[in-house]
Structures are given as structure tokens and as C-alpha cells.
Specification:
By secondary structure, this protein is α/β, with parallel strands linked by helices. It is 28% helix and 19% strand. The structure holds beta-D-glucopyranose.
Length: 730
């Protein structure tokens, strides 16, 4: 069912004081709602005193596929959830069956890695506000995103849903996303807490890592989600961490998340992540979701059999479990409901609006990364009378696949559509598939020959290939960039290497466009290709954005949010640690050396560096000054567009600790700003860094330490293209 407002069936039964509270300012900004906290707590106290034990227990586990238990007698609604993270998912029945014949298509935003590649905080917020608005319209209380697991291995099937390998960029983009969602009056859900960095045996695998890696790499995104984003809910991951399931981990949930970070919202389990009653009751998990799935598979749809279901009532009644543990969970769920005004009239939201499509388009515009260009791009529209487009990804739609992030897109402009939209009658566009997406996977000599024949004499040739989410939209067809699966290697599937080599031999000017959530091994043809473009999965407007970039109506400004290694073995997760496929015990011996922290410290040349992305113009960096006053280091410089077209540059500020007791990475990102400049225009940029930017986590002392001494500030266009350096002493 589609609601344009919440389901207020219970509203009439709410006690008057709460009604007054809830209706006070339905559209108030989040900050104001937070200020109302004492009133919320009083309202919660009152409800708590009226709830029976059975009702409380009913609230702490699912009541259907995507709802928590409500208490009709007291007007407590169910919390209605939806994936997430890059669009509101299609409607499920309460029983997991896809609803048919309902109006549930939605805005399909570019995926997480694409959002991060914009390096534009405002777009993080805009992304979240589209989701929040559409969630409201569709009657959802919680959007199950953002996904902010660190991109550690190129093989992780869910990397496309996540953002980056870097904890600072992760935090910055996450905070905007969360505020965007929650300012619409819908709860975001930061997931998956924590260290779910591979899909391999995700419900069994145990992750070990030192505290330094935990605090410096894997936690900052979640900390920022809580402390800066004010996220209302967090999802506990499937995997074990130091021997305990994340959903049972008192250390992670009570110790770090709730006590240390001060998180006072609700912790939701990943679907079927709770495995044991006593462990879940004792740990900080507040809502058990999805445990019915295995039961449903066996034909038993009895929701009372949740681990945090009827057994808990018995255990409280016989004195084994203190009811205070259950009360604490219920309070957090009620707090979340008050924060989103679930008891009152809510913003109706909006759905599939031109404005939402415009935002999807702008994110795609700024996400696409120009990896390599020897001057081939942009193509000249008026000089291109014939264009050959090759590759199955030129016509493939990706929205509906990938796992829980699947979106039934309102529409999806493919690369071929986008090119045809742009070129209209002016250019004759031909298309050849070149390869087939099939499980058997190899190259096809006939398809290659047909594609070669097309690109040979074409005025311009564009290849669009890369990864896919799966062979169809069905879960058991997931592959490559998809949930519950990982890639077997970084090798392009379906014989694409052979095809690309043949295309480049026939027409060396063929532009190579790659779709997907992350890097591929390009060794066979990277040197021969003149232009390479990374397009991610760029959402419903992606084809239009790509066409405008290829033909120069738009200047690319995306930057890689992750290192593209030359080959898999260069990736620190695979070089310094035994990662996935081999063992259910995963020891992150790569420690803090994730992504460019490894490549730059160990001097391993990547295919394309973290932060890399070319433009059709050039930028000058001048007049760097670095000064320290009290506890603040001020970095200032001028950036100038030195070329002939307008463009945007992501100015990246890295910090290097010149001397330290503990080993530190060669550089770490601590600030950035995206600036849009007309040709010839300059802008002065100022960054202020506080002591956090210079500290490391000392796992001997269990605290952050700022070691006095000299630090170097490195400012550049990527982690490997440093343009200005300055030093100061702390
Ligand atoms: C995924 C979550 C998702 C949930 C609900 C799980 O399998 O790991 O990310 O939110 O399903 O669909």
C-alpha cells in the first residue's frame, strides 16, 4: 500500500499531552526537535508506565518483513523500514512477497561510491533529502542507509553501496546524507556496524583487528554519523567481531557506540543477525529484524519465535532477565519514533519529482571520473557524423539488481539513451553488443568481429563495459557488485579484455567507459587506451551525464574515493592480510594501511590514485601558508582555473607526521573543498585543522595522542599529485 501520510490508525488513542507534543512543529528542523528532548523523555516515561511486559517484548522484534511491533492500545505505531541506500526500495508485502500492481517506482540515485566521488558535501545532503522526501511519501519511517563500511578489498560485492576507503571522506559524506534524510523527518540508519568489509560468509566470519585500525579507520564514519549527523538508528552487522556477533557485542554496542559515542537512538539488527536470546538481550541490540527469514523458508511464519520474542517474556517472569534491559530497548525505539514525529502528522513528502531527478542528475554529473585523457576527450559533436557505441553496459539497466539496495527506478537513462538524447539527428549512432552477459562468460568471436567492424570507420567510438550487479534482478542471480557475493578477481568478466584489445587495435581512439562499484585490472590495455572514464552506477540520469561529459558540455569533476590498484595482489587487504574466501577467521593484519595509506607509505604505484580525477581545464595552486595559533592550524592557498573552460577542482589537504613514535601513514586526508571556477578565476581557500587532524590512536594507552613535533601539510589534486607543501611545529 502507498501512503501519502503516515498510517495514523492509532492517533485517536494517544493520550492528549503526547498529541500536543507531537503536533507542535511537525516540520521543525532536527535541531529544534533535539532541543525538545526533555519533553520527549517525559512522554516516553509516561508510555513506559502503561506498557505491559508482553507489549514491550512485542516492540523489540519484527512484526513483518520490514516493520517493528506496534502497540495499538497505546497508539504506538510500527516502525516502517525500507532499503536504502540509493533509493526507496519497491514495496514488500508483510510476508516478503513483492507487491504487484502498486505505484512503487522511485528516484534511482547514483550509488554510494558515485556519491563519494563527487567529494561534494552539499550533494551528500541533497542525496539524503531526496531519499527522506520519497520515504515520507511512501510511508516509511526509516531508510536503511547510509552504508558506510570502509572499502578495504576491491573484491567486496557491496563496495558499490559504500563510499570510500578513507575515514575522513567517509565521515564527511555520511553526515550530509544523514542530515538530508532526517531533516525530512525520516530516520537514517548507519550500517553495517562494524567491519562488514566482505560478503564472504558474512553471517559467520570473525574479524580481528587492533584497536588502532578500529579507531583510526573503521569507526570514524560511525562516530561522525552519531556525533555530527545525529543519526537516529544504527544497524548492527552480520559478522562477528573479536569472537562475538556484532549484534551480541556488548563491547561494540554498549561500550563504543552507546557509551563512548553517546548514541541514544535505536540499534537495529541486520536481517537475521541476532542468533541467541540471552546474548541479544544483554547486548545493546534494540530491535531484532529478519530472524523470521530462515523460519519462513521452512514454512513457519510465526513472528513470536524471534530470539527477542516470547522467550524473553518467560525469562523476565522467571527472574532470569532484568526487565530494565528490555525497558532500555523500548525507550530507544520510542525515542526514535518521537524524533521522526511518528505519533503525529508528518510531512507528506514528494515522489519522483523533477527536482529529485535534477538532484540525481547533478550527482551523476559530479561523480563521473575522467581517469585518463591524452586529449581525445571531449569529443566534438559537430565533427562527429558517425558514432559507434559498443558494450552490453551501454544498454543495460542496473537499478533493479544488487540485493537489498535494488530500486524499481521510475526510469533509467542508459549510456546509449543518453548519447542518443544528446546527439539527436546530428550524428548517426550505431550500437554493437560486443559481449554477452552470461554465466558461461567467455568472449564471442562473432560479436567481437561485428563490434570491430563498427568502430573501425566510425567518426568516434565509445566502449561501455565493466561490472554488473547480477544476471537478473533475482537474488540467486547476484554476481560481482551485489549483496551476499564477492568478486572472484579484479578481471573483467565476459571476455571484455579481448574485446577491448580488439577495439583499440581497430580504432585506437575508442573511448573506454567503465561502470561498476570499483576497480578492474586494466593491465592488458590501459597503456593502449587514450581515454578511460569511470562511470560507477550513475543512477537514473547517468546516461545523460555521461554523454554531456564525453562531448564536453560538462567538465568532469569526480575524484576517486578509493585507490585503483594495478592488480589485486597490490591491494593491502590481499598483500598484508589473508582476505576472504580462504578462512572464516579474518585477521586485518593490514591494520591502518588501508587504501592510499598503504600505497603511499609502501611506495606501491597504483593504476589510479585515491583522489585522482582529470578535468578539461587545469588548476594552479599558489601561495600556500600554514600557521598555528592556539589549537588551530590554518592552511590557506589560492586556486586558479588556468585553462579555457569552467571547471571544478577538489582541493585535498593531507597531513604527514614528520616524526612519530608509532608508524604513521605517509599522508592522511584531513580536509577538502570542491571549488567551481570560471576560466582565469581564482579563489582563496582557508582550512582550519584542529588537533584531531594530527593525532593518532595509541593502542597501548587506549587514547588519541598528539605527539609534539613538525608536521607537513600537503595540498594537491590527488593523493599522488601534491602541488604545495608547508610545515609547522606543534
Ligand atoms: C542487508 C541490509 C539490508 C537488510 C534489509 C540485509 O540482508 O545486509 O543492508 O538493509 O537486508 O533488506
Amino acid at each position: 500500500m502507498i501512503h501519502s501520510l503516515r498510517n495514523y490508525a492509532f492517533l485517536g488513542m494517544i493520550a492528549l499531552p503526547f498529541l500536543f507534543l507531537a503536533c507542535e512543529a511537525p516540520a521543525a528542523p532536527v535541531e529544534e526537535e533535539t532541543e525538545k528532548a526533555p519533553d520527549i523523555e517525559a512522554a516516553i516515561d509516561s508510555l513506559m508506565s502503561q506498557l505491559t511486559l508482553e507489549e514491550k517484548v512485542h516492540m523489540i522484534h519484527a512484526s513483518s518483513a520490514f516493520t517493528s511491533g506496534g502497540v495499538e492500545r497505546l497508539g504506538i505505531p510500527e516502525l516502517i523500514m525500507s532499503d536504502g541506500p540509493h533509493g526507496v526500495r519497491h514495496e514488500h508485502g508483510r510476508d516478503w512477497v513483492k507487491d504487484e500492481g502498486v505505484r512503487d517506482s522511485s528516484t534511482y540515485l547514483p550509488v554510494g561510491t558515485a556519491l563519494a566521488a563527487t567529494w561534494n558535501r552539499d550533494l551528500g545532503y541533497a542525496f539524503g533529502s531526496v531519499l527522506g522526501s520519497e520515504a515520507n511519501y511512501r510511508g516509511k519511517d526509516v531508510i536503511l542507509g547510509p552504508g558506510l563500511n570502509i572499502i578495504r578489498s576491491p573484491l567486496n560485492g557491496r563496495n558499490f553501496e559504500y563510499l570510500t576507503e578513507d575515514p575522513y571522506l567517509n565521515a564527511e559524506m555520511t553526515v550530509g546524507y544523514i542530515k538530508g534524510v532526517q531533516d525530512q523527518g525520516v530516520a537514517a540508519c548507519a550500517k553495517h556496524f562494524v567491519a562488514n568489509n566482505l560478503e564472504y560468509e558474512r553471517e559467520q566470519v570473525n574479524v580481528e583487528m587492533g584497536d588502532r585500525a578500529l579507531y583510526e579507520i573503521y569507526l570514524p564514519g560511525f562516530k561522525a554519523a552519531v556525533q555530527e549527523g545525529g543519526v537516529y538508528t544504527v544497524m548492527a552487522a552480520y559478522n562477528k567481531f573479536r569472537g562475538d556477533y556484532c549484534a551480541h557485542s556488548e563491547y561494540l554496542l554498549d561500550g563504543i557506540l552507546k557509551t563512548e559515542f553517546g548514541f541514544d537512538g535505536a540499534v537495529i539488527s541486520d536481517w537475521n543477525a541476532v542468533k541467541n536470546t540471552m546474548e541479544a538481550v544483554n547486548a545493546g541490540i534494540d530491535l531484532e529484524m529478519g530472524s523470521d527469514l530462515p523460519m519462513l523458508a521452512m514454512g513457519d511464519p510465526d513472528y513470536s519465535k524471534f530470539h527477542m520474542g516470547d522467550t524473553v517474556v518467560t525469562l523476565v517472569n522467571n527472574g532470569t532477565v532484568d526487565v530494565a534491559l528490555i525497558d532500555a530497548k523500548v525507550r530507544r525505539l520510542l525515542r526514535t519514533m518521537y524524533r521522526i514525529n511518528a505519533f503525529g502528522e508528518r510531512d507528506p513528502g514528494a515522489y519522483n519529482t523533477p527536482e529529485h531527478q535534477r538532484i540525481a542528475r547533478q550527482i551523476a554529473d559530479e561523480a563521473i571520473v575522467l581517469l585518463k585523457n591524452d586529449g581525445m576527450l571531449p569529443l566534438d559533436q559537430s565533427a562527429t557524423k558517425t558514432l559507434a557505441v559498443v558494450g552490453a553496459n551501454a544498454t543495460r539497466k542496473h537499478a533493479g539488481a544488487g540485493g537489498s539496495s535494488q530500486v524499481k527506478a521510475f526510469y533509467e537513462v542508459t549510456p546509449l539513451d543518453g548519447l542518443q538524447n544528446l546527439l539527436g539527428e546530428s550524428t548517426a549512432v550505431s550500437y554493437a553488443e560486443g559481449y554477452t552477459v552470461s554465466r558461461e562468460g567467455g568472449s564471442d568471436a562473432d560479436l567481437i568481429a561485428a563490434a570491430v567492424a563498427q568502430v573501425k570507420d566510425a567518426g568516434a567510438a565509445i566502449y561501455v563495459g565493466g561490472w554488473i550487479h547480477g544476471f537478473s534482478d533475482e537474488w540467486n542471480d547476484n554476481a560481482y557488485d551485489a549483496e551476499a557475493t564477492d568478486k572472484a578477481s579484479m578481471e573483467l568478466p565476459f571476455g571484455q579484455n579481448e574485446l577491448i584489445e580488439a577495439l583499440l587495435a581497430a580504432n585506437p581512439n575508442t573511448v573506454i567507459v567503465l561502470m561498476g562499484g570499483g576497480p578492474i585490472d586494466m593491465r592488458k590495455w590501459q597503456g593502449k587506451a587514450k581515454s578511460i572514464v569511470q562511470a560507477w552506477y550513475p543512477g537514473m540520469e547517468g546516461g545523460n551525464a555521461l554523454a554531456d561529459i564525453l562531448f564536453g558540455n560538462l567538465n568532469p569533476s569526480g575524484k576517486l574515493p578509493m585507490t585503483f590498484p594495478v592488480k589485486l595482489e597490490d591491494s593491502p587487504a590481499h598483500k598484508l592480510a589473508v582476505t576472504g574466501f580462504e578462512s572464516l577467521e579474518q585477521d586485518y593484519t593490514d591494520g591502518i594501511f588501508v587504501g592510499y595509506r598503504y600505497f603511499d607509505s609502501y611506495e606501491v604505484e597504483p593504476a589510479f590514485a585515491f583522489g585522482h580525477g582529470l578535468s578539461y581545464t587545469s588548476f594552479g595552486y599558489d601561495n600556500l601558508t600554514v600557521s598555528k595559533e592556539n589549537g588551530t592550524v590554518t592552511v590557506s592557498l589560492d586556486v586558479t582555473n588556468t585553462g579555457d573552460v569552467k571547471g571544478a577542482e577538489v582541493v585535498q589537504v593531507y597531513v604527514k607526521d614528520d616524526e612519530s613514535n608509532l608508524e604513521r601513514p605517509a599522508k592522511e586526508l584531513k580536509a577538502f573543498q570542491k571549488v567551481k571556477l570560471e576560466p582565469g578565476a581564482s579563489q582563496n581557500l582557508t582550512f582550519e585543522l584542529d588537533e584531531d587532524a594530527f593525532s593518532y590512536y595509541d593502542d597501548k594507552q587506549n587514547k588519541w595522542v598528539l605527539e609534539p613535533g613538525t608536521f607537513t601539510i600537503l595540498v594537491g589534486s590527488s593523493s599522488r599529485d601534491i602541488r604545495q607543501e608547508g610545515q609547522f611545529t606543534w
